[in-house]
Amino acid sequence: MPIWLIKVGNAFKVAFAWLKGNFTLVLLVFFMIYSFIAVKKRDGLYKQLMDEYQKQREQNRQQIEELRKIQQEQIAKQQEIDKKYREVVASIEQNYRDQLQSLTRAKEQEMRQIIERTHDDPVAMAQEINSLFGLPVYTPPTE
Questions:
Q1: Domain chopping of the chain, boundaries
Q2: Which residue in 118, 115, 111 sits closest to 133, CA to CA?
Q3: For the whole model, what pTM was predicted?
Q4: Average pLDDT of the chain to the nearest whole number
Q5: Residue 16 and residue 23: Cα distance in Å, rounded?
Q6: How far apart are CA 66 and CA 61, in angstroms?
Q7: How does pLDDT run across 119-138, given as a tens digit for each residue?
Q8: DSSP per residue over the chain, as a string?
């Protein structure tokens, strides 16, 4: 048998004997190597997850900004609508006041004309008002 084969066989016997005596150390080294490899793989996963998290966070920030812009636009539109509404209501109220004042003046003018036509005669005024408005006029009984 060649010498080198005997030396290899003896080396295996010594290694096996050492492994038998230090089995926990071998397992500990194996576990450490496995953990190191797993951590390296997880480190890549961690970086990938962090990148995705940052992207999602940026997208959320952009969406929030877009929603705020939309909200501001809606507020501005609502304020514009409210302003137009107030202007229209003010215009209608002013028109109403003007027409009411015009109508009041017309009634006063008509009453003055009635007074002038009847020459301050109460009976004639009552008949004129009755013919204009269709109101029955109460005439007190004469004695």
A1: 3-132
A2: 111
A3: 0.47
A4: 86
A5: 10
A6: 9
A7: 877 778 777 777 777 777 67
A8: --HHHHHHHHHHHHHHHHHHHTHHHHHHHHHHHHHHHHHHHHHHHHHHHHHHHHHHHHHHHHHHHHHHHHHHHHHHHHHHHHHHHHHHHHHHHHHHHHHHHHHHHHHHHHHHHHHHHHTT-HHHHHHHHHHHH------PPP-
Residues contacting residue 132 through CB under 8 Å, at least 6 positions apart: 110, 114
Q: Which two tokens stand for residue 127?
A: 């008949």
Assess contact for 118 and 124: CB atoms under 8 A: yes
Give pLDDT tens digits for 53-97. 999 999 999 999 999 999 999 999 999 999 999 999 999 999 999
